[in-house]
Amino acid sequence: MNQLRLDPLTGRWVVVSVDRASRPAAFFSQTSAPVQVDTSRPCPFCPGNEESTPPALETYGPTGHWLVRVVPNLYPAFDGDQPFVVTNRGPVFTQATAEGIHEVLVLSPEHDTPWDKLSSDQIGLVMSAIRDRIEEHSHASGLRYSQAIVNAGREAGASVEHPHAQLLGMSFVPRELVEEQAGFARFAGRCLLCTTVDAEEHVGHRVVYADDNVLVICPFWSGTPFEMMVIPRNHNSHLHQSSTADLVAVGRAMQTVLGQLRSHLGNVPYNLVFHSAPYRAPEPYHWHVHIWPHLTTVAGFEQGTGVLINIEAPEQAAEELRSVVHADAH
């Protein structure tokens, strides 16, 4: 059974999910390790191997041929529909039930097609699927928040090569979201990210990509090299309540900048993290996507203090990524 355990020093919940250690090659000792150590087994996410996963929750595409497929995770971090119950087992031993939903969203039938190589139509299906599943989660009893992520590369946490996303519906609001909500609440004036869009476009130094719907920046406060933030221009707290046009625009902007990242630095592992307001949270909030490439190691200082050390100024990172576009145009 999965559990949530409270760290009394930080106030963060930790998920204890021992079943996830059963995933293929759950532990690795080298950062250069391949995503899948055992490639002799059929890929569970390729067409024809559907029996390797639980029955699909949703499929998108023509009748009889799926283009996007959503299935329950075989090794869920959150599972079950029991109420969120906190138990104190001692002066510093606080735990809770890790109930919720954990799903896998297969991005494409193609085994070797990461986000930046998806077609525009496929990106539209993927973003629609993320929206639809979060909408479904929001109506589940006892759930408060959904986290959508993509782990690309072994160092970023992927354990299956076939590109996929994960959707986790949980009965609590994670500390990271609580802190972001507090940041919006503290900001004097209009929306924090609407202001960021205006300010970053005005100076221009950290803009990687811009169109009528989306701005992508290397944030002024970047903690890691080539970190990016994808911000829809239209203000909305909730991803699942955004227009299809905005969702598709965000997906395509991510395709563009991830392609620039690959052209500039090679096959870099990265995490895509979608941050949307908790289902019933009031304003202020503005949904967005974090892109965190894995180019450096988080060492003792960072882990011990929570203070990140960035060895690439975001202004320089943005300039280098913009230059990829100019180079490709000639």
Q: How much helix is in the residues?
A: 25-40%
> CATH superfamily, please?
HIT-like
The number of domains = 1
Mean pLDDT level: 89
State the helix count: 6
What is the topology, as strand order, of the major beta sheet? Answer: 3-4-7-9-8-13-14-12-11-10
Give me the CATH fold name: HIT family, subunit A
Order of helices and strands: EEEEEEEHEEHHEEEHEEHH
Looking at how many chains there are and whether they match, the oligomeric state comes to single chain
Overall geometry: globular
Poorly predicted parts:
26-32
Class, according to the CATH hierarchy?
Answer: Alpha Beta
Strand content of the residues, in percent?
15-25%
Q: What distance lies between the first and last C-alpha atoms, to the nearest angstrom?
A: 57 Å
Structural class: alpha+beta
Describe the largest sheet.
10 strands, antiparallel
Q: Would you count the extended β strands for me? A: 14
